[in-house]
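A student in our group prepared the protein record below, which I am reviewing. I have pasted the whole thing underneath without changing anything:
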Amino acid sequence: MQQKLETRTFLLFLLIVSVGFLMILKPFFGTIFWACAITIIFFPLQQRLLKRLNGRTNTVSLLTLTACIVIVVLPVTVLVSSVVAEGADFYKKLESGEVNPAQYIEQVRTAFPAIQQAAERFGIDVARIKEGVLNVSMSSGKWLAQNALSIGQNTFKLLLNICLMLYLTFFLLRDGQRLLELLIRALPLGDARERMLFAKFGEVTRATIKGNLVIAIIQGTLGGLILWALGIPGALLWGVVMGMFSLIPAIGPAIVWVPVAIYLFATGDNIKGIILVAFGAGVIGLVDNILRPILVGRDTKMPDYIVLLSTLGGLALFGINGFIIGPLVAALFMAFWGIFIREMHVIAPDDDTIEQDSPSASNEPDKDSAA
């Protein structure tokens, strides 16, 4: 009795201390999350370097971290700075009236009277839409302008977060395997289950980041290039926006290029509009339809509709981090239920008998006897 009381008290305090520690780490959730994600992405590179350098762990971890900085951190920092600067310039043009979204909507309404008639039929107030678009444009431009200023003012904070992420990444690369073994020993789920779940965690994280990142880079680059070739102002900004929207499967980049194409048709640039529609639907859209099932669905071993729903839900709940967290939670959900079905014998034991007694099974020649 005394031993049970002591055990329960210990477990209670263990839970309290663990929750308290997680609350302490909560402000650094994004930093820790991306440190773990980068570690998972670059872990195969580290393993190759370990074989070549005869297990020099510190040196290999430092080399892997350097590769991470060169491949990921520096390009993303330069790109974000360029986009925020261009966004601040876009906001100035909005304030000065050089860019007027309400005028663009009016041009579209005048060029396509059917849109006006359909809007009136469904009780849609076009004037309110114009006001809403202007407010959204001003708010977005103001946000980018403020972030451009905050990046200059809070450079130290930004650098501190990046350095903390890289610091954690180094130790996760160096000690990750040992920490993983400690977790497997500590968690009371059974070693075999835990290894399978951690393997699924790494597999889905790697596939989701690599797949979505490749698709975002390709679609954003293609979108920015076609807008630049057609002479659309702010091609870099809109290209990056397309890359961000590409995280939404199926419809992502179309949120940007479809309104631009409509505006081109409204202003009489029919050739440019046709080129943009053909390129957007036939090239940018094709990238998503071909690469996403290959890079994300196949490696995560999840159906396309589960990837779509989990990505959208993750983005809605967790923001930008959700494009990884959503599919990850979905994959772990499927893995846990797979373990439950297999180990709890939820599948009827007669299934195998039914399969063997089916006509297709009885008509199939015996492979062993044929051999």
The longest helix spans residues 57-96. The chain has a mean pLDDT of 75. The radius of gyration is 27 Å.
